[in-house]
Amino acid sequence: MTRMKFSDADLSRIIEMAWEDRTPFEAIYTLYHLNETQVIALMRKELKPSSFRLWRKRMNGRTTKHLQLRDPKVSRAYCPTQYKR
Questions:
Q1: Domains of the chain: which residue ranges?
Q2: Do residues 34 and 59 make contact, with C-beta atoms less than 8 angstroms apart?
Q3: Quick one: three-class SS letters along the chain?
Q4: Which of 1, 17, 58, 77 lies most in the core, judged by the most C-beta atoms within 10 Å?
């Protein structure tokens, strides 16, 4: 993996995007040029081992993390009720 330097804010945002169920890996690639394998390596490096295992278990088989596997009904990056007005 090519070592890239990210600001603390960018690193925090990448981790946040990786944790979000509806944010696909393709979106992370578009913004930060990290593919799925690189995101996994970054998460392994930046998270505590127990948090990394929890994240991997959560992401395993989650079709919303890949645009090609995503149900066409999922058109947003968040649930409509997530941000209350």
A1: 8-65
A2: no
A3: CCCCCCCHHHHHHHHHHHHCCCCCHHHHHHHHCCCHHHHHHHHHHHCCHHHHHHHHHHHCCCHHHCCCCCCCCCCCCCCCCCCCC
A4: 17
Residue in 26, 32, 36, 25 with CA at minimum distance from that of residue 11: 32
pLDDT beyond 90 at 48: yes
The model scores a pTM over 0.85 = no
Model confidence at 33: pLDDT above 70: yes
Instruction: Give pLDDT, residue 64.
Output: 61
Closest Cα to residue 4, out of 40, 43, 32, 45?
32
Which pLDDT score is estimated for 78? 55
